[in-house]
C-alpha cells in the first residue's frame, strides 16, 4: 500500500472520475500486440511493435494540442488516432495509402481492444459500492464503450472529451465534468496514473488520487515525472485505492 497524504484532513469525494489509458487499461501491451499482427500483414515484421506503439503514443499530446489551441475544430480521438497511425507509418517509410483501408480501420481500432490492468475490474467494482465512478478520458464515447465492454469495466457513466468538447489538460475538461455531474470541483476526485493530468485537475480545484503504473511505458520512466506532487491519495493499484477509501 502506497498510502495517502494527510488523509485525516481531507474531504471525502462525492464522485470518482478516472483517466483510462494507462490508469485503468494497459495501452502499450495492447497496441504492441495488435501492431505486431498488422505489421506482419504488410510484410514489415522487422519493425519492433513495442517501439511502434510508443511512437504512436508520442503523437497523442501534439495531436490534441491542435484542438486545444484552436488550430483546428474539435474532432474525436478516433479521428486523431487514425491520423497518428498514418503519421507513424510514414515515419517508417510506409505509405498509408498503399495499405487496404479496412486494415487501417481495424488497426486504429486496436485502441478499442485494450485489456484492463489485473486489479482494475475488482478495484472499480469495490469503489463503485461507495462512489459513483465515471470516465474522464480523452477517448470518445464509442471508444470508451468498446473498451468497457471488452474489459468488463463497470462505469456508472462515460464522460470525457466528447462530452465537454475539451481535451485534457484544458481546465474545461475537468470543470465541465464537474458541472455535468452537478458537483463542485472540490467534490470530484480525478484518479490517474499521470502527474501532468493530476496537476491540471488540481489547478482546476479537483481532489487527486495517483495510481502507480510502473509498467505503463514498459518499465521506462514516465515522461511527466517532473510534475510529481504530494497528491491527496497515492495507491499501488485500484484495489489499494479502494482500501484507502474504505471500500471493502
Give the helix/strand layout.
Elements: E1 15-18, E2 25-26, H1 27-41, H2 49-58, H3 60-68, H4 77-91, H5 101-108, E3 115-116, H6 120-128, E4 133-137, H7 141-151, E5 157-160, H8 161-164, H9 171-180, E6 188-192, H10 195-203, E7 207-211, E8 233-235, H11 238-244
Parallel strand pairs: 1-4, 1-6, 4-5, 6-7, 7-8
Antiparallel strand pairs: 2-3
Helix pairs in contact: 1-2, 2-4, 4-5, 6-11
Structure explained in plain terms:
With 248 residues, the chain is of the alpha/beta class. Helix content is 43%, strand content 12%. The chain has helices spanning 27-41, 49-58, 60-68, 77-91, 101-108, 120-128, 141-151, 161-164, 171-180, 195-203, 238-244, and strands at residues 15-18, 25-26, 115-116, 133-137, 157-160, 188-192, 207-211, 233-235. The strands form two sheets. It has a six-stranded parallel beta sheet with strand order 5-4-1-6-7-8, with helices on both faces. A two-stranded antiparallel sheet has the order 2-3. The model is unreliable at 4-8 (pLDDT under 50).
Offer a quick outline of the entry.
The chain is of the alpha/beta class and 248 residues long.
Amino acid at each position: 500500500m502506497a498510502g495517502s497524504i494527510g488523509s485525516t484532513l481531507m474531504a471525502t469525494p462525492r464522485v470518482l472520475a478516472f483517466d483510462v489509458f494507462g490508469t485503468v487499461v494497459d495501452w502499450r501491451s495492447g497496441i504492441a500486440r495488435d501492431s505486431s499482427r498488422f505489421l506482419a500483414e504488410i510484410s514489415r515484421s522487422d519493425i519492433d511493435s513495442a517501439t511502434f506503439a510508443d511512437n504512436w503514443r508520442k503523437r497523442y499530446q501534439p495531436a490534441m494540442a491542435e484542438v486545444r489551441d484552436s488550430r483546428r475544430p474539435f474532432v474525436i480521438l478516433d479521428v486523431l488516432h487514425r491520423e497518428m497511425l498514418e503519421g507513424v507509418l510514414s515515419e517508417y517509410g510506409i505509405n498509408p495509402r498503399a495499405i487496404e483501408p479496412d486494415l487501417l480501420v481495424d488497426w486504429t481500432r486496436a485502441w478499442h481492444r485494450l485489456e484492463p490492468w489485473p486489479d482494475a475490474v475488482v478495484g472499480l467494482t469495490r469503489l463503485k459500492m461507495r462512489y459513483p465512478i465515471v470516465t474522464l478520458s480523452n477517448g470518445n464515447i464509442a471508444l470508451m464503450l468498446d473498451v468497457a465492454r471488452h474489459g468488463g469495466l463497470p462505469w456508472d457513466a462515460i464522460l470525457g472529451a466528447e462530452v465537454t468538447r475539451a481535451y485534457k489538460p484544458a481546465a474545461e475538461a475537468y470543470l465541465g465534468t464537474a458541472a455535468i455531474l452537478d458537483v463542485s470541483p472540490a467534490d470530484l476526485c480525478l484518479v490517474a496514473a499521470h502527474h501532468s493530468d493530476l496537476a491540471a485537475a488540481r489547478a482546476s480545484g479537483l481532489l487527486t488520487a495517483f495510481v502507480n503504473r510502473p509498467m505503463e511505458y514498459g518499465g521506462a520512466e514516465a515522461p511527466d515525472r517532473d510534475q510529481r506532487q504530494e497528491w491527496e491519495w497515492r495507491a499501488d493499484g485500484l484495489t489499494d485505492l479502494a482500501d484507502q477509501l474504505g471500500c471493502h
